Every structure is written in C-alpha cells, then in structure tokens.
Amino acid sequence: MRVLKKILILMAALMLAASSCTWAAELKGLRSASTAQHDRLVFDFTEMPVYHVSLSADGRELTFDFTDTGAAAFQRRAVRTNRIDGVSYSTRGGHVYVTVTMANGMDYAIGNLTNPFRVFLDVMPKAAGNSSPAEGKLSALPVPTPASDGSTNDAQTSGAGAAEEKPKLPLLVEEDVAPGLMQRTYIYEDEDGQVTSYFVEADPTQYNVRPALARGTILGRQTVSGIARDTNAAAAVNASYFAANGVILGVTKIDGVIVGTTYYDRSAFGVMPDGSFVFGKVSYNGAVKIDQVTLPVSGVNAERGEDGLVIYNRAYGRTTGTNPYGLEYVIREGRVAEINTNDSAIPSDGYVVSVHGSSMDAFAAAGTRLGDPAVLMEQTGAMWDRAVHIVGAGPRLVENGAVHVTAGEEQFPGDIRYGRAPRSAVGVTKKGKIVFAVVDGRQSHSHGLTLTEFAELLLKFGVQNAINLDGGGSSALYVNGDVVNSPSDGTERAVGSALILQKR
C-alpha cells in the first residue's frame, strides 16, 4: 500500500517538473501463459504504474494506457493464441499503450500483484448466457456528473440519463488483500480536475464489522491505523464525529452498550444480532429512576453540564474526572453502591449517575440513600434497540439504490454540507457486501467531492445503502497494514473512533 503514496507523489512531481525524463515506472517485460481456463498476459514493472483501460465498441480490443511509464528496455513481442488474436504497442509523451485484441466470444479479468510489481490480463471464453463483466474484473462505470453544490436537504434520485453516459472509471489498483477482502483505487477526471477514491469491499460471512474506540476508551484520540493495529483489524475507516477530547458526537453502541449520544436525530449504521446491516435515523432517549425519582439523561460519557445528568460507563475510562460541584451515584447490581461528590471510579459491572444543579437537588430532596434501587432506561427506537453495534454519523447518502442526501434535515453545519472535501462513508452493496470508501480532497491529485457527488460515486460502485462518516482531515482508510489514501492534513489525524473489519 505504500506504493500508492509513492505513485501519487511522483505524479505530482512530474506535473510540476515537466522537463523531467524519469518515469515513475518502467515496463520491463511481457510474459504469457495458457491454461485450460484462460490465457494470461503478465506485464512486469519496476514500480506499480498508474494505468487506465478502455474497451472498444465491439468488445474485442482492450487498450492499456500506462501513465508516467517508460519502456526503454522493453522488448516488444508478438502474442497470438486461440484466445488472443494479437498485441500491439505504442509510446507517446510518457505513456505506454498496449492494445490486446481478443478472439470473438472472449471475456476478461484484470488484476495487480505487488511482489514483484505486475499487471495481469486473463482472457477466457464467456460463460453461457453471460454478457456482463465477470466478478472482479475492471467494470465500466460512468464518470460521476458534478453536482451544483451538494447542499440539498431533500431526497434526490440519480438521473435517468446516467446510463447514456460513456462508461469510464479508470482503475489505479485492484488487489485481493485476502479471501473475501478486495481493495480498489480509482482516479477519474471531472470538469474541475482529478478525483482519487479508495474502496474496501468485504464479504460479511468472512469478516465482522464493528466500531472501535481510540485506545479502547472515549477520552483521548488515536489514528485509524493505531486503532486498527490495536484491534488486529484487516481494514478500518474513521467513523463518528468527535470533540477535541475524543468524546463521540453521535449515537454509538458497542457490544450492546451505549457509549455515546448526540442532541440530534441523525443517520446511523447498525449491525444486528444475525449479522445483517441497517441504515436510518437514530435518536437517544434515556432516563434514570432511583427509588421513586425519575430524571432524563443529558448524555452518555460526555461532559456534565449545568443541571445535567450524565451516565458514565467503563467505555469512558476508569474514573469520571468530574469537578466537585455535583453528586455521583455509583450503581452496581441495580442499586446505589456509593455516593460521592466527584471523580468517582467507574465500576466494570455497573455505571455512575453524575448529577448537577436541579438534577442533584431532585435526588437530594427525595433522600436518595445507599442501597436504593436504580434503573437505567435507554431507548434508541425499536430497530436500534435490538442492534449489537451502532455508529452514528451522517448524513444519509444512498437509500435503496438511489441518491438521498439528508444534510439539511439532519441540521449539519455548513462545513460539512457545502463544497468539495475529503469524504468517508460506510455502505452495503446489492450483494450484501460491506464497503468502506474514502475520497481524497484539498490536494493536487484530488479536489474532493460534494456530498451528492460522493453519493453518486457510491451508487456507481453498486452501493445500495450508505451513510457519510466524519471527513476532512479525519478521512483515512487502512488496509492490510497501511493507510492507502492521502490524508489532507499531510499525516493521519488522531480521531475518536473507527469502523473496523476483523476476520471471523
């Protein structure tokens, strides 16, 4: 994955120094082999090249455009088999073009290998009755159409004319990271410049998806790569919005326990007990009853405000860290086990009810004592109450196979709603595969996307439902030991939480 960063750096350097004659990659050779299933062409390189692939109208000619690639030492060779009619070559301005003419009735698949650096093409007979691209090949996808501003708060459906566009979404990297785990990187041009996007697609029968906190607690922050390594994750993406101290700003549930809340009804992604995924709006409503007094919960694992009642559980850390101007009830086994003024130790088998002002006065007036029964009542909605995991972020991007951006109705601020920026998302494809997606932004190799443009890109990738995650400098996608995108801060930002994929 470090090769991707190297490629992008070299691309930028070459654009700034047009006089340079040093190419990012050199084509060293071409090999071919035949089996009963397919004929394979293997292109050997010194580094992984940036390349685009186009298919002729009759479906027989595949042209590879290897960008910023030299071929000084390459020995051109003729290839002709029962499945391949011929191979032709040309070079121009730092591009090496290779056109492969396939025999009639052939299908194809394209892939990469990185040790050493190789691009391969498999040519095989089309399956009976199959006129669509094979699974895992370079599929033709339309270039996204730029939106006006991405600020809509109403449901939007992709235009019917989208199918009329010329299919083109160039492939930079496609790699089977592990069985059931695919990573793809795409670059394309729109009217304002280049966009670089990254996708991880996982088979949910082989990978569990779950939220993970920075260093395992609410307080404090950590990079996505750090969270991934601490949890032995195969892949990870930044998740919920967060405060400077790491407090999660979104309804978050981990292993059935609420660890974060928000004041807004916003979009969320959830994992159900049977392993299925859900998308929709989630809200938190909580109350604590001690003896005969019931009070509303202001937040979970958050800063205690004036007159507030906050629940602290072990996800917050070992102590509440509160000031001495309130009162705290330590709850174990459904009863008040301790009463403290502040900074209580949080039990692993219970929680702390921390109150201030009018909330404190209400319990005091009732004469709350040690041993009084205590009940914590939490509701997130019928569907969400049953969820094992919840990641609250938003807005919604894709709903039931259509663009549906809900930034306005979810009351997101302008820095999220408007303009092009780095973006992150989680989605599920029509085939039920989980997708982590990141788009670079605010950089020469990628200007970023509006929310609507991002939704359109996800839709073209086959995503059926998706929500937006925290973005900007937080956007980071970790795969197989490295961050594959280029964070806009110049380095990874420490975040509050991540979504991770773990091998079952």
3D architecture notes:
- The structure is a single chain.
- The two termini are 23 Å apart.
- The chain has an eight-stranded antiparallel beta sheet with strand order 10-11-12-31-30-32-28-29, with helices on one face. Strands 5-1-2-9-8 form a five-stranded mixed beta sheet, with no helix packed on it. A five-stranded antiparallel beta sheet has the order 13-35-14-33-34, with helices on one face.
- With 504 residues, it is mainly beta.
- The chain is elongated and about 90 Å long.
- It has six helices and 35 strands.
- It has three domains: 2-140, Immunoglobulin-like (Sandwich); 199-281 and 384-503, no CATH class; 285-379, no CATH class.
Summing up helix and strand content along with how strands pair, one would put the structural category as mainly beta
**DSSP strand count:** 35
End-to-end separation in angstroms reads 23 Å
- Average pLDDT level: 86
Parts with pLDDT < 50 across at least 5 consecutive residues:
12-21, 129-168
Q: What is the count of DSSP helices, taking H or I runs of 4+ residues?
A: 6
Domain module tally: 3
Q: What's the arrangement of strands in the largest beta sheet? A: 10-11-12-31-30-32-28-29
* Portion in strands: 35-45%
Helicity range: under 10%
Outline type: elongated
Q: Based on the structure, what is the oligomeric state of the protein chains? A: single chain
Biggest β-sheet strands, sense, barrel: 8 strands, antiparallel
Rounded radius of gyration (Å): 27 Å
